Amino acid sequence: MLQEIEGKLPQDKEKMLASIDRFQALSPEERTNFRIGRRVGIYSQLDDLNNLRKHQAVEQIIHQLSQGSNQVDEKTIHALTEGFIT
Length: 86
Fold this sequence. Notes:
This protein has helices spanning 13-24, 28-39, 52-65, 74-82. By secondary structure, it is mainly α.
């Protein structure tokens, strides 16, 4: 899911962990936004969250998937994952 994680251990360990830590530091809503956006092909890296146009597009998808509640369940996210090929 975090495409920017690349490198070789042990020399790139800190850089690799920094990307994971950055994802974990996001609010639950932003993590969901990234997960959905990544699964539907809008995002390719965490920095894409800062792109307002992309962020709004993902918010619209979340609204549709959640039928207005803005809460997407894990089953729906998993279904998106099944259809995603990197």
